[in-house]
């Protein structure tokens, strides 16, 4: 009797030890509950979800599959449990499985979620219906089987890639369209009846963009936008419902025409007389009607008697008219002009083209809304109203050069307006008509034959017989969109101070603006005090403790438009903030280019508003530390169109940030400090040479020219 009790006790102890090693207690083993029935929502085959409908099985393209599922033991609510999964698979209608496999035991944590278990099923048959299921085991008992998940396997690849056709870009070895102009391309299954989709790519062989066919073996049409001119190609592959793919092959070649040149371009650089010449069509001119005058423009050429920005036509009491039309206004076209509005009292038209009774389009200003406007009518009638109109988001600004650009896209039945490169919106226009009359600069024909003028100046008028792209294109000298380029280019010198004088009261402005900068300091110690190691030219030295600086009488650039500021600098004191170049507002600088002592880096900043007390500013710091005693060229760029600040150091991009909002600091340019109406702050201690400000966005190809004082290309 004693021996029997001893054996029973030993057996119980051994069982307790075994259960302990398995993470279970003897008490729980006596009341064991088997694992729960697996939810089919947790079951997958090769990562594909379970389908419990044998009429709609999961289609796969491999005979080796990873089967996975979540197993949960109800006893794991309070204590960890060891559980494993068993997967079984077989043919539809057969009670005998084709195979089964168990996973390893895995511990399910107390209160934890179901544990995912996986096994590998190999050598599965093809093109037959297979069902798989799973159940769990907790070292003592099996749980219930899940419902069956149904799969079907095929590894047969489609015999051929798709074919492609396009009416917009036909494969006829001729040029069509243009970069940025979308076209329809139709993919056909090419006789592969079980093809359900195609993957394609343009100009490479990666075939990654998926397009669903309308029906198996059918076709699908997509819009593709070429990014380059010249020969282009499409690679594609067909894919069946199982995921089998034909090779990615070249299936289509087409030629994209270069951007079409403008059909009319009036630079308006004549600067005299009353005739403007079209640079695109020999002999076509726009003749003055009424009083015509000329002023400095926003864009132009350098040479001869032209100013650095060229001229512009002033049409307050007259306008320029061609003998006939320059564009079919019922078709695709783009028109753009630099405009300066001097009076907001009445509606005004900068550019238009006449119909018989009313202008076919008008680009200008709406006095009632006080906004820039692009408008057209639905018909050429005596009483026709401009019922198709797009207005700018913000009020029109007087006295500032603004780039207006408008498009008409008959393919989309739409007109759009851009102001300084920023899209303002669009409007539907499905009833365009062709205005066959004169093209007018500085005026237009309104309702009832009224004549509208332009109170201000117009410059650089260009017309295309196509829609300019507002998408960044690879096929571009700048890598930017066409709309961006015409808003931010050309880059124009507005103030250039060489700072190479030997004496005198001021630093001369090398442009024809005449913005000489008066010296506030000791001429004996400032002038010709050192040598710039960048251009090997004389340079000045300023004493920040005495707040020595140079100051113009008036602004050089519009700080609420795109601009570029740069200077050669040698910082001699790195313990305090210092500004090499700025333009003054009433209370703070509109921009400041210089050095930030806290970070010990170069900085380009623009104030959020014209407020004192060190209000908010947008700042970009260089990605390298500033070094005292060393000559460096620093350059800051504000891109108004995209709202960014960039900082370049010695011609290399050193930092970028975003900016919201803008305002114009209409005060003096200060060289050697951060200027405002009350004086100068953050004075520069060290040497300065060649300080410049440009209107427009300088890109990498411009910066070398700017560094050496030459006009950008």
Automatic annotation (TrEMBL):
SMART domains: LamGL. Residues 1-29 form the signal peptide. The keyword Protein biosynthesis does not apply. The keyword Transport does not apply. Residues 27-60, 93-119 are annotated as: Disordered. Keywords: Disulfide bond, Signal. Pfam families: Laminin_G_3. Residues 331-471, 561-702 form the LamG-like jellyroll fold domain. Gene3D superfamilies: 2.60.120.200. PANTHER family: PENTRAXIN-RELATED PROTEIN PTX3. This is LamG domain-containing protein.
């Amino acid at each position: 009797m004693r021996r029997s009790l001893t054996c029973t006790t030993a057996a119980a102890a051994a069982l307790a030890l075994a259960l302990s090693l398995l993470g279970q207690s003897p008490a729980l083993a006596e009341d064991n509950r088997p694992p729960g029935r697996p939810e089919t929502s947790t079951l997958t085959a090769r990562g594909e979800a379970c389908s419990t409908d044998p009429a709609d099985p999961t289609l796969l393209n491999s005979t080796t599959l990873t089967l996975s599922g979540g197993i949960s033991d109800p006893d794991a609510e309070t204590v960890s449990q060891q559980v494993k999964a068993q997967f079984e698979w077989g043919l539809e209608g057969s009670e005998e499985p084709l195979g089964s496999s168990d996973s390893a035991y895995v511990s399910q944590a107390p209160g934890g979620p179901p544990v995912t278990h996986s096994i590998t099923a190999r050598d599965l048959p093809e093109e037959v219906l297979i069902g798989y299921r799973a159940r769990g085991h907790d070292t003592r008992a099996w749980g219930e089987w899940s419902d069956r998940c149904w799969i079907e396997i095929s590894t047969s690849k489609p015999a051929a890639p798709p074919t492609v056709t396009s009416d917009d870009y036909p494969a006829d070895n001729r040029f069509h369209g243009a970069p940025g102009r979308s076209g329809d391309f139709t993919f056909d299954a090419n006789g592969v009846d079980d093809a359900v989709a195609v993957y394609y790519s343009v100009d490479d062989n990666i075939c990654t963009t998926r397009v669903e066919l309308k029906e198996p073996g059918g076709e699908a049409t997509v819009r593709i936008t070429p990014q380059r001119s010249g020969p282009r190609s499409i690679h594609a592959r067909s894919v069946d419902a199982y995921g089998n793919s034909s090779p990615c092959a070249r299936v289509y070649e087409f030629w994209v025409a270069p951007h079409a040149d403008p059909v009319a371009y009036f630079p308006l650089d004549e600067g005299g007389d009353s005739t403007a010449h079209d640079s695109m069509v020999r002999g076509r001119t726009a003749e003055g009607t009424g009083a015509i005058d000329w002023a400095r423009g926003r864009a132009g050429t350098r040479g001869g008697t032209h100013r650095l920005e060229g001229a512009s036509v002033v049409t307050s009491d007259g306008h320029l008219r061609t003998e006939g039309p320059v564009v079919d206004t019922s078709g695709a076209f783009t028109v753009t002009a630099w405009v300066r509005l001097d009076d907001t009292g009445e509606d005004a038209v900068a550019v238009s083209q006449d119909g018989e009774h009313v202008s076919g389009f008008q680009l200008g200003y709406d006095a009632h809304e006080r906004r820039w406007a692009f408008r057209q009518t639905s018909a050429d009638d005596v009483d026709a109203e401009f019922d198709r109109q797009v207005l700018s988001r913000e009020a029109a600004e007087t006295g500032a050069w603004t780039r207006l650009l408008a498009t008409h896209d008959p393919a989309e039945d739409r007109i759009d307006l851009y102001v300084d490169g920023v899209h303002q919106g669009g409007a539907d226009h499905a009833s365009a008509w062709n205005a066959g009359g004169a093209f007018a600069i500085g005026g237009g024909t309104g309702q009832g034959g009224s004549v509208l003028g332009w109170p201000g100046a117009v410059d650089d008028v260009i017309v295309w017989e196509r829609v300019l792209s507002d998408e960044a294109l690879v096929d571009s000298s700048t890598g930017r969109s066409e709309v961006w380029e015409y808003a931010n280019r050309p880059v124009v010198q507005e103030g250039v101070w060489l700072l190479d004088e030997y004496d005198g009261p001021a630093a001369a402005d090398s442009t024809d603006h005449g913005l000489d900068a008066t010296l506030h300091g000791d001429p004996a110690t400032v002038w010709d005090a050192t040598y710039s190691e960048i251009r090997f030219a004389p340079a000045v030295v300023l004493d920040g403790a005495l707040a020595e600086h140079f100051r113009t009488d008036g602004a050089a650039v519009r700080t609420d438009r795109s601009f570029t500021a740069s200077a050669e600098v040698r910082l001699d004191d790195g313990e305090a903030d210092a500004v090499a170049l700025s333009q003054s507002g009433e209370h703070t600088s509109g921009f400041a280019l210089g050095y930030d002592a806290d970070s010990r880096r170069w900085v380009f900043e623009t104030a959020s508003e014209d407020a004192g007390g060190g209000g908010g500013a947008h700042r970009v710091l260089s990605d390298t530390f500033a070094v005292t005693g060393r000559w460096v060229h620093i350059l800051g760029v504000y891109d108004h169109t995209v709202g960014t600040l960039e900082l370049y150091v010695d011609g290399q991009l050193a930092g970028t940030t975003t900016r919201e909002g803008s305002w114009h600091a209409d005060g003096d340019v200060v060289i050697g400090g951060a200027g405002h109406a009350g004086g100068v702050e953050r004075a520069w201690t060290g040497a300065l040479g060649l300080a410049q400000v440009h209107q427009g966005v300088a890109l990498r190809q411009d910066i070398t020219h700017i560094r050496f004082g030459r006009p950008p290309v």
